[in-house]
Amino acid sequence: MRERMNKQSSFIMVSHNPLESGILSDHVTIKAENLNDAKLISEEELNQLFNRLSMIEENEERLDILEYEKLPFLFSSDHLAKLIDITPSIKTKISIITMVGPRLVDPRSKMEYFVGLFRFAEEKSAVEEILKARTQTMNA
Q: Which of 20, 23, 42, 77 could pair with 110 in a Cys bridge, judged by C-beta atoms 3.0 to 4.6 Å apart?
């Protein structure tokens, strides 16, 4: 369900040089979202979203709802911190950061906090890359 296309997103296939590693099917899918009409979520809207997600027990369902509900909004790092507190699941926390990270208005402000939430280098690196990518996009 989260892979559903809408008017604000598109999928782009990015292929690596097939001769580089000898594997012809090596490719990465990047999801690009249009943030032109997005606005910073208000505290009231954030609380409504948080309450809605809190009532759901299944993390996959939470992620499906967040994927849809995030579309008109931008978020602060404080907003993201509140959203990831909704679950103890490391995998779900990373998924939420992956969804909301590209919509942050201040991706550097809590970077150390978000990276510090995770124990393993791979998780830390993934979170750091998401936040750095958003910083680069904003500086472009």
A: 77
